[in-house]
Amino acid sequence: MTIFDMATKTNSYLFNINNLNSDEQTKFHTVYNDLKSRYQSYSEYKRNLIGKDRFNEQEEENEWCYELFRFLRARKWNISNTIKSLLEMIQWRIDNHVDSILYNPSVQQRMDHFRKCVPSIYHGFTKVQRPIYMEKTGQIDIDETVNKFTNEELIQCHIYWLEYSCHLAREHSRQIRQHIESIACIYDLHGLKMEVRKLLNTCKQCLYIDDNYYPERLGQLFVVNPPTIFPALWNLVKHFIDPVTKRKIMVLKKGNETTMTLLQHIDSDQLPCEYGGTCRTCSTSPDCLPIHQSK
Asked: What is the rounded CA–CA span in Å between residue 36 and residue 25?
C-alpha cells in the first residue's frame, strides 16, 4: 500500500493526493515519477547517515510528498522548474551535511553560544497550530556575533534553525494528527541600531537559502516595536525578499495594535505578557525571552 492509498483511508497528517485538483495531480505525479530514482538514492543516503533507528521509511515518504507539493506551489506549478529546484535542493543538502546537522555535537555547541548573542525562544503555537519562534532582534549583540562567528558559521546556525523549525512542525503534526508545515515568527526590533547592517551580507545569504531550499515554510512573520530607523533598514533588504514572503510579513505599530493583532492569531496563554498575553508556563515567566549577557 502506497502513501497515497493510506491517506485516502484515514483522516490524518498523511499526504492526500485527492486534495489536489486533476491538473495538479497530473503535475504532481509527473514530478514524483521523474524524481523517483533520485529520491530513492537520497533516501538510502539519509538512512545510512542518521541510522536505521532514526529513519522511518513511511514518514520520510510522507514528508517527501509534502516537499514536492511545497516546491510545486513555490514554482507556480511549473514542472521543469520544480524538478530542477528539487534536484538542486537534494544536492545542497548532501553537500552541506544538512540531514545530520541536528545531531552534530559541534553545531549544537555553537548554537548554545549563538543563542546567547541572539535572544530567542520557541514559544507555543498559533491558533492554526504553527510553532512560534520569537526573537528579540533589537537586542542582538552585533559586535559579539560578528567577532565570535565566521560568516560560514552564522549560515550554519541559520540552517540548524531551519531544520529545527521543520522538526518541530513535523513532531507537532504527529501529535495532533494534522499536517503542519510552516512556522510563525515574531521579531521584536526594540533597540535595533544601524550597526545591524554588519550582518546584511549574511542576511542576504540566509534569504537565498530560505527561498531556494525551504519554500513555503514561513506561515506568518510579525515585526513588533519597529524603531524609527526601520524604513531605512527595510529598504536595504526588501529587494532580496520573495514577493510571496513579503505578503506574509506584518509590521505592527507600537501599542494596542501589536497586542490586538497578535491575539487575532495567537491564543493569550501562548503569548508572553510583554506582548499582551497571559503565559505563565515558562520557567522565567513573565520574562519569557531572557536576554543573556555575553562574555
From this structure: 16
Q: Which of 275, 280, 244, 278 is nearest to 261 (CA)?
A: 275
User: Rounded to an integer, what distance in angstroms lies between the CA atom of residue 10 and that of residue 63?
Assistant: 17
Residues belonging to the chain:
295
Backbone angles phi, psi at 124, to 5 degrees: 70, -155
Q: How many Å apart are CA 168 and CA 183, to the nearest integer?
A: 9
Average pLDDT score, the chain: 92
Cα separation, 18 vs 221, whole angstroms: 30
Tell me: pLDDT of 263 over 80: yes
Residue 40, amino acid: Q
Contact 160, 107 (CB under 8 A): yes
Residues 231-247: tens digit of each pLDDT: 999 999 988 899 999 99
Residue 63 contacts residue 217 (beta carbons within 8 Å): no
C-alpha cell at 31: 514530478
Q: How far is CA 279 from the centre of its chain?
A: 23
As beta bridge partners, residue 7 has: none
